[in-house]
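Milestone M4 deliverable, item 7.
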Amino acid sequence: MAAIETLSRRGRRAAGQAASALLKLLGLALLGSQAKAVDLPADRAEAMFHVYDGGGVKASGPALLVRKSIADKVSVSGGLYVDMVSNASIDVVTTASPYKENRTEWSLGLDHAVKDSLIRLSASQGKEPDYQATTLAADVSQEVFGGMTTISLGASRGQDDVGRKGDTGYFDQARHWQYRLGASQILSPRWLLSLSAEALADDGYLASPYRVARVFGSAVPERLPRTRSARAVKLRLLGDIGEAGVRSAVRGEYRYYRDTWAVQAHTVEGGYSRYFGSDWLADGFVRLNRQSDALFFSDNLSAETTYVTRNRQLSAFNSRSVGGKLSYSMGGAAAAYDLKLNGALELVRFDYSHFTDLRTGKAYAFNGMVLQLYLTGRF
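Output delivered:
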């Protein structure tokens, strides 16, 4: 399993792309192989250090993941992710004081292979001084048509306990359901097409106890509905374009998202991967994202309404990302353990259409950076 498993649920989503993209090119080598029963994931250990810096938020920390099979029947994995956060974001500096806190997340997973099926159960729990999130998930994938097609089905159920600094205990909860359905099809020995869909439903306290909105220029606590549902669909195409000993691949994907708060988002990504010799694997990508305002988002509301928010994550924005990854397979004695050194860097730019910086009165924008350094190996 890639290092993405250890990433925070509330952390930087962009960081999660760094490990997974490195595996896509490797997976293309399997397209021409003969169909056979599904195998358990290999025994692996991964250690990562991650850094995020953008929009006044700095987060860094280690992440560990260990996976071990038992009697060739099941594979058990355990992970630890730590975030040390220094927050002076635009929301914080305009309404409160900057702060520092730590977040720790534990995760456990169990995989069981039955002929052409792979069953996965997982659980995770993340803790912050004023927040606790617990998630349970189950996924099943099934190979059909001689291994040319893979169907996947999954569901997750999460619960967040929400607190407030300075208060004792938690004052409210939020519950999250996610249902997943996907299919991947081998088009030829060189091309793979996949389509996935998600249905999401949330209820409970979905706001922030610290965030404020503006009505007639005055600060008021944000008010959000206690229910939200969403749908998302993603189409991805992978292709091996290597020739005459040059192993290289391209990929492209499109994702569409829409929810009952009237938020719509379009994401397009394209990437290229290539081996240099037998030891180096390089990957580059570009991602574009565009999102619309939520129905009740307002930078400065001119009338009282039931719901109002100034959460910039619910406002219209455009983002552009460019990133690269580099993986080195260590030789010598390390080759017996398939040791790999990996590095990934992503640069992202956010431009908000209607959310303004109260200090300047101009539309808010910021640059962000995601860095990952990790070591992986088998045992």
